[in-house]
Amino acid sequence: MDPWRYAVNLAASETERKEVAALVNAGFTGKWMPFIATGHIKQMWADLVGATEEGRLGWKAMVAADPAAGKDVAVCVHTKDWRGQDDVARVLVELRALGIDQRLSYQEETATRILLQGKGPSLYVAGPGKDDFTQRREACTTQERHIHSGSSGPEVERTVAELFARSEPYGPFHT
Asked: Is 154 part of any domain?
């Protein structure tokens, strides 16, 4: 079983989907990473699914399907391009409107793949309840974006159909 459940932006046009696919394949996507208390995850995930599918959040959201007992549940809300700070901020504001008021970290997908060592993984950080964020480190380099986790050959291009597939079920959770 996949350890994650996903929601995708069903409101995105074909042009927007192609743009996201190109940005995913170029290594420019990123994500806000809230952690939600297990007692609140079912309702919060339902709210995040709705907001993602309606296009109010980023292009994808995901949640850990089988979190560790007693631990908050990891959620990722993906934006199409970490360089687009207006969109990164727009998604942050929407997360705040959904009631996620904790300190939030934002990380490029590349930083996750290469497990940044020594730099600190968060590119942007938003203080508790804040609608703005600060940049914590330099962004991943072009060379880092081309490092393939455990791969010696070219990375397989992700397709629009693959990226925007709507997988079921969106739950249940083992909490």
From this structure: yes
